[in-house]
Design a protein that fits this description.
Layout: H1 3-9, H2 15-38, H3 48-60, H4 82-87, H5 109-128, E1 136-140, H6 144-157, E2 167-171, H7 176-184, E3 188-192, E4 195-197, E5 200-201, E6 215-217, H8 220-233, E7 241-247, H9 259-269, E8 273-276, H10 284-295, E9 301-305, H11 306-310, E10 317-321, H12 323-332, H13 340-381, E11 386-389, E12 392-399, H14 403-417, H15 426-435, E13 442-444, E14 451-454, E15 457-460, E16 478-482, H16 489-502
Parallel strand pairs: 2-3, 2-7, 7-8, 8-9
Antiparallel strand pairs: 1-10, 4-6, 5-11, 9-10, 11-12, 12-16, 13-16, 14-15
Helix pairs in contact: 1-2, 3-5, 5-13, 6-7, 6-12, 8-9, 9-10, 13-16
The chain binds pyridoxal-5'-phosphate.
Residues 143-145, 173, 175, 177-178, 247, 249-250, 276, 278, 305 line the site of pyridoxal-5'-phosphate (PLP).
Amino acid sequence: MNDAALQLARGLVEPHMIDAAHEAVRSNASLVHSLIAQRRMPAEPWPRPLIVQFLHQLAAMDTNNFAGHAGGGEREGRVYSSLVAERHYYMTHGIGRSGDLTADQPKAAGSSLLAKLNNAMVLDALRTAGLTKTEAAVTLPMATGMSLALVLQAVRQSRPDPAAARYVIWPRIDQKTSLKCIATAGLMPIVVELAPAAVKSARDGAASCCSELTMLSVRPDDVAAAIARIATSDPAGVNAIVCVLSTTSCFAPRVPDDTLAIARVCLANSVPLVVNNAYGLQSRAITKRLDAALALGGVAAFVQSGDKNFLTPVGGAVVAGRKSVVAAVSALYPGRASAAPIVDLFITLLEMGRSGWTKLHRDRVDLHEVFLQRAAAFAEARGEELLQHPGNDISIAMTLRNWRQHSALRGAASEADGASPPVTDATALGAHLFRHRVTGPKVVLSAANNSKTVCGIRFVGYGAHGSVARDGGDAPPLLVLACGVGMTAAELELLFARLEAAYPLLKQA
Ligand SMILES: Cc1ncc(COP(=O)(O)O)c(C=O)c1O
């Protein structure tokens, strides 16, 4: 209602009541005004009714919602189902226009404004999370892998000889999307195997010089060597390389890449660096290094998942980094885009505000401390070893060395009691936990027992990112766990209660 209508309303309802209501309407309008003027996340969460009201206001600016509208084209944002229209807040034209995701959609001023505000808030969220040197960000309506494929193609086109550029130098990570995105882009991965990294052991509580096991990380020198090999063997030289695709967030026993050191290698060789930062925004260790790499000017783009960082349904990702690269990615996107993941993120950021976003990260860091303590106590009580690294402040791995013997002993005991026998096979532990409503933990077998071919490449020790045995021998199975953003203290307790039930302590004889 505008001011004139409210004036008229004073003739129908007690004027002092209308004046108070007018004040409330004005204060909501000033929040909307600040959002558009400042182009940042609101400092505090918006009330949900205001978010809904704003969404309806934006929808009213789209031509499909104009009163008396007559559409004479083939794409008029017509939606058959009122349920579907409602699910999308009546914004049905999508985002962007053929040929540019960030261009205004001519039939949808409201949706276009929403997309611009969303990208501005996302940029603010990245900077608030510690990536202060980020120049630009765009939300893509595709998950991380597809977004990475688009980024790789955009970077390829920026190379001096795009037709010759076909290799992506890829420090190994045993997560299929991370490799498949290279194949989807029609490019060829050059795998850089990982090397032993310093690790903490629950047994000795100190540096892992004494442990037979190790976490794994990529050596920047090995990345440099891979670049040099292509540069000297391919007729196009270094121009045959599209980029280095480095990964930050990852499951133990892998350590996130040192993006700063890799950025230095890339700058020295004039090779772009793309970073798969799938769920890295929640990690201080990751963001600190990535921000330093951005400050150095060594990162073309970095990509992060919508769901794993911002707690939205799967379907969106954020591409950020250099302004020119983000613009090139937006321009490469063919056609209009689904607005759904963008609307989800827009709503989420308004409902979170900057205070909610920072609290989410603070809470995770606090919970991670408890996670480590619980995991260390669990491992120690069972004579197992914890593999952790300060560079990976999200995930840990734990040996299942004594698991088989432990389970066999319990099996004998439970058979005598007539109870169902416990799980004895390490891989069955994962399935057992899943059946008991625990998702996420993975059981990883030793290198000798576990090879896999992905995108035509054979990986030894798949899941463990290589061999974690220092002496090249065989390693015990590992249980891999993560403390991800949004996890609650109650969830953590439940997780360990279920782990304890699945792997109980043996009663003293
Ligand atoms: C390192 C990494 N990259 C990519 C992905 C998958 O991304 P998406 O399913 O969003 O494409 C994951 C999933 O967990 C991941 O861990």
